[in-house]
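Researcher: I'm comparing several assemblies side by side, and this is the next one on my list. It has 484 residues spread over four chains. Same procedure as the others: predict the full complex and return the structure.
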Amino acid sequence: MNFVFNERDGCAKCPIRHRAVCARCDEDELSVLEGMKSYKTFAQGEPIIWRGDDMHHISSVVAGIASLSRTLEDGRTQVVGLLLPSDFIGRPGRETVDFDVTAVTEVTLCRFQRKQFETLVTDVPHISQRVMEMALDELNAAREWMVLLGRKTAREKIATFIEMVVRRDTVPVHTGQAHTLPLTREEIANFLGLTLETVSRQLSSMKKEGVLTFSDRRKFTVLNLAALQEATGDDADGGVII
Amino acid sequence: MNFVFNERDGCAKCPIRHRAVCARCDEDELSVLEGMKSYKTFAQGEPIIWRGDDMHHISSVVAGIASLSRTLEDGRTQVVGLLLPSDFIGRPGRETVDFDVTAVTEVTLCRFQRKQFETLVTDVPHISQRVMEMALDELNAAREWMVLLGRKTAREKIATFIEMVVRRDTVPVHTGQAHTLPLTREEIANFLGLTLETVSRQLSSMKKEGVLTFSDRRKFTVLNLAALQEATGDDADGGVII
DNA sequence: ATGTATCTTTGATCTAGGTCAAGTTCGTCA
DNA sequence: TGACGAACTTGACCTAGATCAAAGATACAT
């Protein structure tokens, strides 16, 4: 049941059909998009677009992971978001890009000319409604991350990150499952507002305490999920009254 | 030329008419909104809604400033956004609220029943288009703030904050103008991911260095704008190629 | 006017996490 | 199969900003 993306299949078989900017579109709308889209693949580590560049396309990530980041003049870098399949890149209504976008793994994008996409936004309500919804979700995620960056300790940051990775790819029920860190220690550090040494030390100490075990630098298994969640510093509930 | 908001005036004379969620609406659409809206005012310091509460309304700030924040169990607080006139509160499509919303100054909201607003989002494209646009702008601002929280020094954080306050209420040309900090030292600290003591010390040192001068705890004038901008740690240009 | 609470400043000290510096592991390519 | 480089770990030390503590300011209520 493993989706292998194939450009020739068309939108109907697209793995992100029901989650991307096109999610709310009906068959007719989809056939319009079909005629406008094009694919492009970027190798691992390759820059997709730089801050300040002209934005010629609005794209959706079809496969792979990209990062959004900003680097200050002296080299300090902050990753402000990870773009997973179905996430979009670009801002209709803006001429240039505000953050650097880089392929963290090999990335395939489904792209639309920005000008054409802007006409879709005004002419096809299903598009603006879906982009609105996605932007509001991203906004929420960004604000949650602001709490982490501004107020959490190194340990809480790492625990939150690991828990996020686990939550994102856990197959229901199947516990004791192996997971893969999608980022290097340095990339994790830039995402969490830490140094790579601190990331390494915190991971080592969680290993020593028996919360996690690593089979390899990138592959790990959670041994004590309760301890992991406790270490995130978040409420167990999402603010819901019990 | 000072707008005094008056509920009786109706949408046409509303001070946020051209910037809020209704900005793109035509006269007919506006008259629909007119029949659905209601106003509510909150006193300075009063909570507007708590994280986890049922979201009965979607609102726009008409006057005043509100804060969006999250507090961890042990009391650490992070302000994740300031809501100024025209900014909206609430997320169409969600049942509950994700952050605490508090009136920083006296705040007047223009409110819509959430359920009714959700029908507007599906029936009136001008609404979803405008909310999309605003959400994308907010997302950008949140990401910029993530860079500040994750990578900037205390001095850079304060300089960025002051510069933001100045930019937001500068009358063109008029330099040497007096500005007012909208927040207490503690609120500034919670917005910047610092302690109130560090905020106070950094402000004192910028005063000592002649970058700013205070006429009062809240009122200040910028004496050296170049030094202030230099201290933010940002590129002077917005990544634009010169 | 005066007392009280809130906000702010400043000083002294402490510490989490950064910086600097070796090593170690692992994957790749000859 | 070995050697090179990238990624990672660990240790020693340092510092920016937190914490703890004590005075000043300011505003507000009586």
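Model: For your comparison table: Residues 184-186, 196-197, 200-201, 203-204, 217 of chain B lie near DNA strand C (CB under 10 Å from a C1').
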